[in-house]
Amino acid sequence: MSKPREEKYQAILDAATEAFAEYGYFTCQVSKIAKLAGVADGTIYLYFKNKEDILVSLFSDRMGNFIQEIRQSIVKCQTTQERLFCIIRTHFKYMEENRSLAIVTQIELRQSDPKIREAISGPLREYFHLIEQVLTEGVEKQEIILADVKVGRQMFFGTLDAAISDWVSSKKPRPLEGIEELVFELMRGAFKIKQ
Amino acid sequence: MSKPREEKYQAILDAATEAFAEYGYFTCQVSKIAKLAGVADGTIYLYFKNKEDILVSLFSDRMGNFIQEIRQSIVKCQTTQERLFCIIRTHFKYMEENRSLAIVTQIELRQSDPKIREAISGPLREYFHLIEQVLTEGVEKQEIILADVKVGRQMFFGTLDAAISDWVSSKKPRPLEGIEELVFELMRGAFKIKQ
Amino acid sequence: MSKPREEKYQAILDAATEAFAEYGYFTCQVSKIAKLAGVADGTIYLYFKNKEDILVSLFSDRMGNFIQEIRQSIVKCQTTQERLFCIIRTHFKYMEENRSLAIVTQIELRQSDPKIREAISGPLREYFHLIEQVLTEGVEKQEIILADVKVGRQMFFGTLDAAISDWVSSKKPRPLEGIEELVFELMRGAFKIKQ
Amino acid sequence: MSKPREEKYQAILDAATEAFAEYGYFTCQVSKIAKLAGVADGTIYLYFKNKEDILVSLFSDRMGNFIQEIRQSIVKCQTTQERLFCIIRTHFKYMEENRSLAIVTQIELRQSDPKIREAISGPLREYFHLIEQVLTEGVEKQEIILADVKVGRQMFFGTLDAAISDWVSSKKPRPLEGIEELVFELMRGAFKIKQ
DNA sequence: GATGAATGAGCTTTCATTCAT
DNA sequence: TATGAATGAAAGCTCATTCAT
């Protein structure tokens, strides 16, 4: 993609993130995104097939980015304990820096429209898979104790997700940074990680 | 409310639960609910102010029910450990028996439309509060160790929520009943519950 | 179909005929038809699937009617000569009484949009078939001389069609009634009909 | 017009003929013509005022060509009989060699959009006039018998038009060349042309 | 002259809601 | 109370046309 094209593509995606976060996917008109992006309505359709494609692209682009960042962050970690803490920290940091994305994620992650769900599920599943890999490896290396990796992932992700959800819906949220340690402490107990 | 009126009210709410679960709130037309409930489109508006009111009523009615059931179930429990396990079991059992409600909960819990969110948040907050009460009491009685009750609740609820989410979106889910023990085992570790 | 439903259906079809005749299918907005029919835009869609369906229904309804009238008119005829004259007369009379339909026929008969063409071609082909039957019978009974029935039909129909076309596009057309004899006289020569 | 300018002008007209024939005037986007002509969308507007102007130009250019060819072909004819046969042959030959133009003619000849109709009617009327001239002269020279020249022209043109229409819409048309004689034989009878 | 990205007016269609019966 | 035909506002999307490069 050429430079200015890529820039406008990202500008529309940024605008969509903001707009979806504020109004929700269905309540948000395409014209609102266009206005926010500073382009004409029709321009949107030079970059995206339709409204749904904006949402889907938003996910693969932003979530892809997010997962990549997570991946990079754990690469230098030595132990499972470090890896888990690293994911918590990066997850919180990323969402804190991308509040609108966090909201959209919270909101649209569970769209029931099957078409949308399917399209969205890819990146999310990838993240789930990554977490499960870390857990599996931890079990193998006997760094953690865990009877069921899937349930472990559900707890791990569910906790982060619920924390974000609270943070997102709170008017005056305490910084997510402040609860990293608290969350990790719980995980340590759950996974029987030695001090 | 008179008997037959109450019955039709519930019939519409049942229909709405099914329909919202299948199509999602926005994608589901009021006429679909009407058809499923076996009433005319116009009749809906004799019982509900508008489409949004159906969703909101659905939540306060069904979630109210749910919370009441949870409350009843923990009333006979002696220890925090029992209470937590009881919540897990009842939560899973209720959702398993009301799959459509579970789906709607998953989907619409995070509506971004501020009006809807506000209306929905009531029952959910009540549930959060209940969990936090149990945790607080557990800390006070030194039955569990927990640095931050809110984060504890996030982990507790988030885990259940993520489990339901997986269960709901899976074509062939393993019964939730089967993971109660697994989930509880994690909680025991997290909250440092003695064996 | 119930009485009032049928009436409104016909009213919309009448309005569509007028509107298509005046503006052409593509240039005519659905809202114009609705206005002319005295109904709301949305009402149109209670009776027709979409804009195209209006055109298609218009054809099968009106052309069906037309062909039926032609059929009825020739039933009492004894000779091929009478039948041909009868078709000419009825064709002209019908179109003269349904000027808008005549225009729509002229205009949309040759739509290139394949979907529309296909849908429209049915009734027209039926008419062609009817003419060819009359000609074939005439040849068999030796009431006319004709080397090729299809070409004979092309001439017969083409002539009527061109006459209507002129009449339709003329501001001050001479009545079609006035040229029945002239047209028939040409046919008599072409088909070698004995005096 | 300069040489390369004229070439590009014709290239666009060629492309438009193909594209209109395939999709119809309204269904065909300007961008499709541009693509087919191998030029940018904007370039079209350096040669034509707007989409409508393409259609109109197409007609005056191509139909002008057609009529000129007809004119040239009858110039060497001695009798009305020869002239009529010559028109039939040339008409068929030209359309057979320019199938797309034939389609466009069939389709758009009867546009209801008044502006387009008016613009198109010029060349067509010229052709009508030419036919009528031949017929009038034939009557005057007593080579044909015809009560009404206009009706005569309607029959003559209508027949050719209907034949083309069939040919155009048929998947496997018999060559028009094959029906020249058949058509002429009918004309001979209609116009009482002596053998 | 040539380009093609950008524009935005205008279209078809949907669907929550109303109201005469 | 119940109905369901009718409403009409509103939204996604297309595409002829423009204009900066």
TrEMBL record, chains A, B, C, D:
Pfam families hit by this protein: TetR_C_4, TetR_N
Keywords: DNA-binding
Lineage: superkingdom: Bacteria
Domain HTH tetR-type, first and last residues per copy: 6-66
Membrane-crossing segments per the record: none
PROSITE patterns named among the record's database cross-references: HTH_TETR_2
DNA-binding region: 29-48
Protein name per UniProt: TetR family transcriptional regulator
